[in-house]
Amino acid sequence: MQDQLYSVIDVETTGKGILGNRITEICIVLLRGDTIIDKFTSLVNPEQNIPPFITGLTGIDNDMVRDAPKFDEIAARIIEMTTNAIFVAHNVTFDYNVVRGEFKRLGYTFTRKKLCTVRLSRKLIPGLFSYSLGRLCSSLGIPLVDRHRAEGDTDATVILFQRILALDPEFTIIHSFLNVRSKEATLPPHLNVDAINALPEETGIYLFKDQKGNVIYAGKAKNIKQRVISHFYDKKNKEYALCQNTHAIDYEITGNELIALLVEAEKIQKHYPKFNSAQKKTIAPYRIIQYINRKGVIQLAIDRSKSIDHSLEVFYKRADAIAQLERLCFDYELCPRYCNLQSTTERCSHYRIKNCKGICHGQESVALYNMRVQRALACLKKEKETYLIKEKGRTMDEHSFVMVQNGIYKGFGYIHQSEQVSHFDDFETFLTLQKHTYHTTKIIKSYLRKHGERNIMYLQEELS
Q: Please, what's the b/e burial string for 65-87 (b: 16 or more CB within 10 A of its CB; e: otherwise)?
C-alpha cells in the first residue's frame, strides 16, 4: 500500500451536534503512502452563528468567517483531495459524519473508506493513559501547535499517522480496520474489540462508564452483547455522544427480564447517569393516612411524601388514591367529609357518595362510625399482600424470586434448586434488599398485568 492515498482531515464546527453541525474550518493533508503531496486549509462560513463556548475553544468567531467561502464553494476542492483516498482523522466518525452531512445538504452522497487514528493508536501503541490528540502528542513527542484549529490538529495527526504506518509495515492492522465487517470499524474510539467479545449473549443489565469510571448510561437487554452493539450503529446525536464518552462496559446477568428491569431502575436511581433520560426523577407517592380529630373521629386523608412509613396505602397517581377513598366510603358507609373528599366544614354533600350515616352532623355516634373505619382499615391491610414472583435464574440449576412484603417491593434473590425453602424467613436469607420506588411499582404491576398469577407464590406471615 505504498501508493495508497490518504486524506488526513480535521474540521472545526459550530458544535450543534452531529445532525446540526456546520463546518467553520477545514484542513486536508493528502498523503501518498507516508509522503505529503498536497494540503488545503480554509475557514468556512457556516451560515449560522458560532456559539460563544465554541469561540472560546477554537478562537474562531463570527467576524472571522463572515467573508470566508461557504461550503459549496470549496466542495469541489474537497472532492478532488479525497477521491480514491482513505479518509483519516483522529476520532474519524465525528469528522467524517460532519463532512458527509455538509455534502448531503448539497444533494451529494459522500462515501469514503475511513481510518481512525485513535483506534489505530490504541491497537499499535497500547498502554497509554489517554488517546486524546493532546495527550498522545505529549506522550509521543509530536509537536502540536494551534490546538483546536484545523491546520494545527491536522499537522499533528499527519505525524501520528506516519508513525502508525511505520508500526504496521505489512498493513495487517490497517487492513483489519478497513474491513467493513470488522467490529473495529464501528466501535467507539475508546473501546477495543476484546471488551465487546467478552459481553454475554444473555439477559441482564449493562453499564457504560467514562474515563473516570463513572456510570454514564444504564440499560437492560434480553441479549446484552446484541443490545450494546446496537448503540454503536445508532446515528442519533445522543447515541453518538454516549459512545464517544464510553471507555468501559460492565454488565450483570440477571437470568430474566423482570429482575433486569428492576436492577436497571436501581442503577439509574443510584448513579443518575447523564445519558439516561427516563426513570431519573424521584416521584413522591400519594399516601392514604389516618389521624384522630378533636372530636375523636378517625379521619382518612391523602398526603404526599417520599416516606412511605405509616402509610395505609401508597399510590403514584392522586386519582388512584381518590378512587380508593371513594370505594371505602361506598363499601363501609363512611363520610366523604371525614375522608377529606370535600373541603366543607358543614355536613357532607358529595356529588356521588350519599350513604353517610350522619357522623358529620351529629346523627351517628363516634364509636359506631369508628368501628366501620376500623373495618375499612383492616380491609386495606389485608389487600397489602406478601408474595414472591418466581422466575428463571442465571443458570439451569437455580431460580430467582422477587419479594413483595405487605405490598412493598423488598428486593430479589437467587436460590439453588437443591435448597428447600418455603417460609418467608427462608427466602429472606437469599434476599438482596432494594428500594421501593415509583418505578419498581410500575415494573411489578406491569409484570402482573401481563403474566397474572402464573408465577406468584403467596407467603404466610403475620402482617404488621
A: beebeebeebbeebeebbeebbb
Burial class (CB in 10 A: 0-12, 13-18, 19+), 227: middle
Q: Which residues contact 58 (CB under 8 A, 6 or more apart)?
A: 12, 24, 25, 148, 149
CA distance 392 to 427: 16
Cell 457556516 identifies what position?
46
pTM over 0.90: no
Task: Reduce the DSSP state of residue 210 to 3 states and report it.
Answer: coil
Q: Is residue 400 exposed (0-12), middle (13-18) or buried (19+ Cβ within 10 Å)?
A: buried
User: Phi/psi at 174 (nearest 5 deg)?
Assistant: -60, -40
Q: Is the pLDDT of residue 214 over 50?
A: yes
DSSP state of 323: H
Q: How many CB atoms lie within 10 A of CB 63?
A: 9
Instruction: Say which residue the cell 418467608 belongs to.
Output: 424
> CA 448, CA 261: separation in Å to the nearest integer?
14
Q: At what angle do helices 92-105 and 71-82 cross, to 10 degrees?
A: 120
Cα separation, 125 vs 135, whole angstroms:
13
Query: In this predicted model, what pLDDT tens digit does every residue of 169-190 receive, in sequence order?
Result: 999 999 888 875 566 666 778 8
For residues 445, 446, 451, 457, the Cα torsion angle rounded to the nearest 10 degrees is: -30
